[in-house]
Design goal:
With 173 residues, the protein is an all-alpha fold. The protein has 8 helices and no strands. The chain has a single domain (9-159), classed as Globins (Globin-like). Helices cover 66% and strands 0% of the residues. α2 packs across α3, α2 (26-40) crosses α5 (94-112) and α4 (73-89) crosses α6 (118-137).
């Protein structure tokens, strides 16, 4: 996936415009997103526990934070680098980002209808590719199977940190 790490201010405005609408029905949005992701790429299902409620909230928190900081490249880069490194240990592979992009675009189209124009899609594509590019840069160039944590290790990691995503634990001070 080609990555651009600069997002134009007009594109940021388009992403934020769409997000203000999506936020009103974010529960439906995030459920639809994961349904589409698992349909597009069934291999992603094994990356998550059976209880998706917490994961949905975490992903929404990350999206909100990233959208708020799209026009702050240093913050954007810092948080995404950290996320990329952590996601390698969950078994995420570079190919999964394209599946996520497709699911995101499909979900936005379904949720927003005519309010999701070609310009909006381009803006979201660029924002997603910038984010995915920063995350994949932080992923080690090793076999992902060797980087996977066991379920027990993952549970211990989650219990040893604040599980509720916030600007504080996403890497911003």
């Amino acid at each position: 996936m080609e990555s651009r790490q600069h997002i134009e201010s007009e594109q940021i405005a388009l992403v934020r415009e769409n997000w203000r609408v999506v936020e009103q029905e974010e529960g439906t949005f995030i459920q639809d997103f994961y349904d589409r992701l698992f349909r597009i790429d069934p291999s992603t299902r094994k990356l998550f526990s059976d209880n998706m409620a917490d994961q949905r909230q975490k992903f929404l928190a990350v999206i909100r934070t990233l959208i708020r900081h799209l026009d702050q490249p240093d913050d954007f880069r810092q948080v995404l680098g950290g996320l990329g490194g952590r996601h390698t240990h969950y078994g995420v592979q570079r190919e999964h980002f394209e599946s996520m992009r497709k699911a995101l675009i499909e979900t936005l189209e379904a949720q927003l209808g005519g309010r999701f124009t070609a310009l909006h899609q381009e803006a979201w594509d660029d924002a997603f590719r910038a984010a995915a590019g920063l995350m994949t840069e932080a992923m080690p160039e090793t076999d992902p199977a060797r980087n996977r944590t066991t379920l027990g290790q993952r549970v211990r990691q989650m219990l040893s940190r604040d599980d509720e995503p916030s600007e504080d634990n996403l890497g911003w001070s």
